[in-house]
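Technical annex, item 7. During the second reporting period the consortium partners agreed on a shared format for inverse folding records so that results from different sites could be compared directly. Each record opens with the tokenized structure and is followed by the designed sequence. A conforming record, contributed by the partner at site C, is shown below for reference.
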């Protein structure tokens, strides 16, 4: 997106809502498959294993009871009782309490966890790859150089960093000549005035030579 601080201009709207690039990103995020945490995967595997084991126990006991001549109803009661006893009913409570204790320990280290399964997932992480965007940068764009289409051979650098206009060292936004063509030295001041009349860290005011003169600025993100 583009931020406009001040001034007047004309814009052509080509898309709105979900048809914009941001809208496409939102649609893609809504289609992201929610993956299970390692703990949830292990719990599912344990549940399937217990279900299969219980079925095998019931079948084996029913077969043994039939071979030994035991009453069918009594054999089934014993098999079902053993199968139910094999199910750990207190396991969900134990897992929840354990994760809650992990959340408390992480909170003491200023790490806030919104979802309990994320605690166990963090415990499985061995390498963390962090992007610098938003971490080492402040999202403050700074104009570094400027030129006009009317004078494409001229290029001027701009001083200043970020949006701070109170700093005497960074707030003046002075133009610095970056071209070395000696034939254009006499008109240096004239071209400077046509490119930019005032540049500060809070806004940039431009005075083009005509309505059709465009100002091109090279931007970069200020580091924190």
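Designed sequence (site C submission):
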């Amino acid at each position: 997106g583009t931020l406009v601080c001040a001034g007047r201009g004309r814009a052509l709207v080509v898309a709105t809502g979900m048809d914009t690039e941001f809208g496409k990103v939102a649609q893609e995020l809504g289609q992201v498959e929610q993956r299970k945490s390692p703990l949830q995967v292990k719990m599912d595997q344990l549940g399937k294993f217990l279900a299969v084991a219980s079925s095998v126990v019931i079948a084996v006991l029913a077969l043994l009871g039939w071979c030994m001549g035991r009453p069918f109803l009594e054999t089934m009661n014993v098999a079902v009782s053993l199968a139910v006893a094999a199910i750990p009913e207190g396991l969900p409570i134990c897992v929840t309490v354990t994760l809650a204790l992990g959340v408390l320990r992480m909170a003491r280290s200023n790490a806030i966890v919104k979802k309990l399964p994320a605690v166990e997932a963090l415990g499985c992480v061995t390498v963390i790859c962090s992007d610098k965007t938003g971490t080492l940068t402040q999202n403050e764009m700074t104009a570094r150089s400027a030129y006009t289409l009317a004078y494409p051979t001229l290029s001027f650098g701009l001083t200043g960093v970020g949006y701070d206009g109170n700093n005497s060292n960074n707030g003046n936004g002075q133009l610095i000549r970056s071209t070395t063509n000696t034939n254009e030295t006499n008109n240096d001041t004239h071209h400077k005035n046509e490119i930019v009349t005032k540049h500060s860290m809070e806004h940039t005011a431009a005075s083009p030579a005509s309505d059709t003169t465009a100002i091109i600025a090279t931007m970069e993100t200020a580091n924190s």
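Confidence is low (pLDDT under 50) at residues 166-173, 193-215. The beta strands are 137-148, 156-158, 175-177, 198-199, 204-205, 215-223. All partners now use this format for quarterly exchanges.
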